[in-house]
Amino acid sequence: MTAARALPDDSAPLHEDRLDYTPTARSVTLARRRAARLVTAWGHPHRAGEVALLVSELATNALIHGSLRGRLFRVHLAVTGGAIRIEVSDPRGERLPGIREAEQDECYGRGLVIVDAVADRWGVEPRTVGKTVFAELALQAGPHRLAASRQASGRTTTTRRPRV
Q1: CA of 86: how far to CAs of 82, 103, 124, in Å?
Q2: Percent of the chain as helix, strand, coil, to the nearest 5
Q3: How far apart are CA 81 and CA 9, in angstroms?
Q4: Which of 35, 80, 150, 153 is most buried, taking the most CB atoms under 10 A from its CB?
Q5: Nearest C-alpha neighbor of 55 from the set 127, 114, 140
Q6: What does the pLDDT look like over 113-133, one tens digit per residue?
Q7: Backbone angles phi, psi at 23, to 5 degrees
């Protein structure tokens, strides 16, 4: 279980869900569908597709790069007044993700490029065992709310370029 984190006052979770999955391809499908269904039920159907895509990419990375035999990965969704946060935790803390340029003939290597293009903010947080990769989607105008929460939290993050 992840340690409790102090959230900015305006970012108290309104809705939250955590579920552990076995490291199989089927689990990615289940996590993606669950996330889309929950975000829709929580009143944000216009963001369900983006959330499903982010869960799919992060869970696939956890499966391919972060899984260990007999260890689960966790998907945590939280909706605050200002953002939807997707977290995927896995047991391989020594394998940190990074954006890379995939060759045109490669089948893999584009997941974080997609996450970077869709999310307003994403990053990696170390855990006692493993790591958590997160992505956030702003619910209100502009990513400035996410920038303020990043400064307040002191987390290790990668902020994507502003959308043009």
Answers
A1: 13, 28, 12
A2: 35, 25, 40
A3: 10
A4: 35
A5: 114
A6: 889 889 999 999 999 989 999
A7: -80, 75
